[in-house]
Amino acid sequence: MSKSPFPDFYIIGAAKAGTTSLVDMLRAHEQAWFPHEKEPHHFFLRDDSRAWTLRDGSREKPLASLLPYGSESAYLGLYRDAPEEALRGDASTQYLVNDTTAKSIHAQRPDAKIVVVLRHPTDRAYSAWVHARSRGEDALASFDEAIGECENGLRDTAFATNYLAEGDYARHLKPYQDLFGDNLLVILFEDLIQKPQAVYDRLTTFLGIEQRSLPDNSASHKNASIELANPVARAFRMTAKRLRRMAPGIFELPLFRKPYEALLAKMGRKPEKLSPEMRKRLDAYYTPHIAKLEASLGSDLPGWHR
């Protein structure tokens, strides 16, 4: 076990690609450990001086003011109670899309294991927009308009809402491939949902921990995006999100987390399907990016061509 105070492995994304399911699988394993905050995002701003922002309801705010674990002491404090025999994990899903983060992690943990889950970029982009809308992090009620802002460069430093660029996986993976080499594991969202045990076996082997059998419900997609059309429901989620920033440990306790998620599910509804026109448009946009990813990984992604 490393004597470094920094985590041993990092699940770097992609956002809305099943990372919560992966974390829940590992949290049930005594040889892997996560703090109560799944996504501290400490390394996102560690060596990045750009003016990143995040919408919080009706206002755009500096991202640094909304990340409670920006300081090294606050971040490392999350891992103070980790069992000595367990591997410590950080599952910050925006690490993938910031070109400074791989170098920042490598500077502290050149031996770190890096895990990434990739989902078809069109499906991921739409799910991310629905998720951001429900959390008050995107003011636009039209996905088409949000994509338009991405195309026009209006979201280059918008945290988690630059949907189009976040799907350029080959570009985002390159710094991690260059720095971490064989210590990078790529998982496909489709495999995680359809073959969770096989994915879990690959993951535990990669991390060097013992294999375990998963419960039957492990294939379910955790943290799936829901639509909150009711203003009261959105206000409830916004309030809960702000309270969670003040007391994140309490909100991660099963006593609070499960009732909160159940209530949110009742208040929300399954989002409308992405329009065929927009799906066709985004699929066409991502076709060359998928080809670059296939070349980068050295393997085909037949299920991604449609």
Brief write-up:
It comes from Qipengyuania polymorpha. The chain has about 300 residues and is of the alpha/beta class. The protein contains 14 helices and 7 strands.
What would your notes on this structure say?
It is a single chain. Strand 3 (53-56) and strand 4 (59-62) form a beta hairpin. The protein starts with 8 loop residues before the first strand and ends in a 9-residue tail after the last helix. The chain has helices at 19-27, 42-46, 72-77, 101-108, 121-134, 143-151, 163-166, 169-180, 189-194, 196-207, 231-246, 248-251, 254-267, 276-297, and strands spanning 9-11, 32-33, 53-56, 59-62, 87-90, 113-118, 184-188. The strands form two sheets. The chain has a five-stranded parallel sheet with strand order 2-5-1-6-7, sandwiched between helices. A two-stranded antiparallel ribbon has the order 3-4. The model has no long low-confidence stretch (mean pLDDT 90). It is built from 14 helices and seven strands.
Q: Distance between termini?
A: 45 Å
Give the tally of β-strands.
7
What name does the CATH topology carry? Rossmann fold
Individual helix count: 14
Q: Determine the fraction of residues in helical runs and give it as a percent range.
A: 40-55%
Q: H/E order of the elements?
A: EHEHEEHEHEHHHHEHHHHHH
Q: Return the CATH class.
A: Alpha Beta
Summarize the biggest pleated sheet. 5 strands, parallel
Principal-axes shape call: globular
CATH architecture level-2 label: 3-Layer(aba) Sandwich
Q: How large, in whole angstroms, is the Cα Rg?
A: 19 Å
Q: Decide which structural class fits the backbone.
A: alpha/beta
How many domains? The number is 1
Regions with pLDDT < 50 over 5+ consecutive residues?
Answer: none
Rounded mean pLDDT is: 90
What strand order characterises the main sheet?
Answer: 2-5-1-6-7
The CATH superfamily turns out to be P-loop containing nucleotide triphosphate hydrolases
